[in-house]
Design goal:
This protein is mostly helical. The protein is built from 20 helices and 2 strands. The termini are far apart.
């Protein structure tokens, strides 16, 4: 048994290193785009010298962006490390070293939408705020996962000390993560006291540190402007009531980012929940049999709606776009609640039921602040996505441990799917790197020829990059010239789009 654990540990170590090299390669191939050009020039440093006054309270995220837009090797390294960490940390939290489950985690993280990938993994500014915040939360969960065990948790003095920088630092990347961390810290203390009848120094230290970090973030003058309506970009709609606002945001856009657009994730959620219902949903009273069957129908139909009904058949349930959006929002909510109540109603292990429910509720709760501040994009939901992945990994570990799933029978399909995406991303970003080199060579050649109007070629696979096409006229195009030391008198224009 011990030899088997050591062998699995070595495999996961090798797996982690290879995944690090993969994300390192992707970061090497990914050009800086959009806001990165601003952060990489004097304007970015001016924000730092001003203490990011009235800009935002994402102090650590901003500093990270300043560094990675200036030091290429550090950008490659940190994006490689964090890319691997976001895949491996769910495995550590779930206490598994099974290689098949590791490939499942990789497959799910690579299965994000192209929009989410382009604005997090493939955009330095997005990475500096959202991926970092995700890793901080996962590290915290790795430490406090023992509250879901039967044994009383124990924390070394070094972990208690570490709670201070972790608690404060986690709060200085992105706002909705900051709010979540405070509530999560409070929940951990309350739940632990109810279960073990004692308080733990690590939990209390983390919550106090998280509160300090939250005060530091939201003391930035930018948030006063947002709440008073003086901010030109982010706003809070005060014309609607709270519940009306929540319904309006969820039924028009949030349901897509949070649930519906995640096609790969939805299939995985449905498959594992159906499998759970089939395996443990036996010897039930009549009402539970009805509920189980209804749940299975919902879990079967919903994941097919987006790829087949919408994308393939291009069928709209209503002629009115608003009504169709409302319908999709309601069925998305129904899908989520079905997953949640599958755990609540049918799961028998109480501690694991709480743990799985915590991950599911966290996935939605962490997106809650986005109801009140607009605009938001898919990058804001990488944290929710990570919670869903963590839920799947933890549920999968349970199914394997209970003997409901034989890993040997499904290893080849899962590993093949993951490696297929690895190969696809490798090819895509190799072509992006080649086209970026060609674009810069073309620009330099035109300048050497004395041209005053320089044509900027588009990059390959733009959907996997965040705003790689210059916005002309616009300050980002001007910053592009400054970042790459192009002559000031040169006028840039985009090459016409290819059909």
């Amino acid at each position: 048994m011990l030899n088997s654990l050591k062998k699995d540990g070595v495999k996961i170590g090798v797996f982690s290193f290879i995944i690090f090299l993969f994300y390192l390669y992707l970061s090497y191939c990914t050009p800086l785009t959009h806001d990165d050009w601003t952060w990489g020039i004097r304007l970015g440093m001016n924000r730092y010298y001003d203490g990011f006054k009235d800009y935002n309270g994402r102090y650590f995220g901003n500093i990270c962006e300043l560094i990675i837009t200036r030091i290429d090797w550090f950008r490659f390294l940190i994006m490689g490390v964090f890319g691997a960490a976001i895949v491996v940390l769910p495995l550590l939290i779930a206490k598994t070293a099974k290689l098949t489950i590791a490939f499942l985690s990789l497959f799910l993280m690579l299965g994000v939408t192209s929009d989410m990938f382009s604005s997090t993994f493939a955009w330095a500014a997005g990475f500096a705020n959202y991926n970092t915040a995700t890793i901080c939360i996962l590290v915290y969960l790795l430490i406090i996962k023992n509250i879901f065990y039967e044994e009383t948790p124990k924390y070394s003095i070094w972990l208690v000390i570490f709670a201070v920088p972790l608690g404060i630092g986690s709060q200085l990347f992105v706002e909705h993560a900051t709010i979540y961390n405070v509530f999560a810290g409070a929940f951990v203390i309350i739940y632990s006291f109810m279960k073990f009848r004692k308080f733990f120094a690590f939990h209390i230290t983390y919550l106090i540190s998280a509160l300090i970090g939250a005060v530091i973030m939201f003391s930035n003058g930018a948030y006063v402007k947002i709440f008073t309506g003086a901010d030109n970009y982010r706003t809070i709609d005060t014309d609607m009531g709270i519940f009306e606002k929540i319904y309006s945001i969820f039924s028009t856009s949030m349901y897509k980012f949070l649930i519906m657009n995640n096609i790969v994730l939805n299939f995985a959620l449905a498959i594992f929940c159906i499998f759970l219902l089939v395996k443990i949903g036996t010897n039930l009273p009549t009402w539970k049999i009805w509920v189980k069957n209804i749940f299975i129908v919902i879990l079967t139909v919903y994941p097919l709606y987006r790829p087949i009904i919408v994308d393939r058949m291009q069928l709209s349930i209503f002629t009115d776009v608003a009504k169709t959006s409302e319908f999709e929002a309601w069925i998305s909510l129904l899908f989520y609640l079905t997953i949640l109540f599958t755990i609540i109603l049918f799961f028998k292990k109480s501690s694991l039921k709480v743990e799985l429910s915590f991950y599911l509720i966290s996935a939605v709760f962490i997106a809650g602040p986005l109801f009140f501040v607009t605009p938001f994009g898919s990058r804001c939901f990488i944290l929710s996505y990570a919670f869903f992945v963590l839920f799947i990994v933890r549920l999968f570990v349970y199914l394997v441990d209970e003997g409901f799933v034989n890993l040997k029978t499904i290893s080849i399909p899962i590993i093949t799917l993951a490696l297929s995406l690895v190969l696809a991303y490798s090819i895509i970003f190799a072509q992006i790197k080649i086209s970026d080199n060609e674009r810069m060579d073309s620009i330099q050649q035109q300048i050497d020829e004395g041209k005053k109007v320089v044509t900027v070629k588009p990059l390959k696979h733009e959907k996997f990059l965040w705003n790689s096409r210059l916005m002309i006229p616009g300050f980002q195009a001007d910053n592009f010239k400054i970042f790459f030391n192009l002559p000031k008198d040169v006028q840039l224009k985009n090459a016409p789009e290819e059909n």
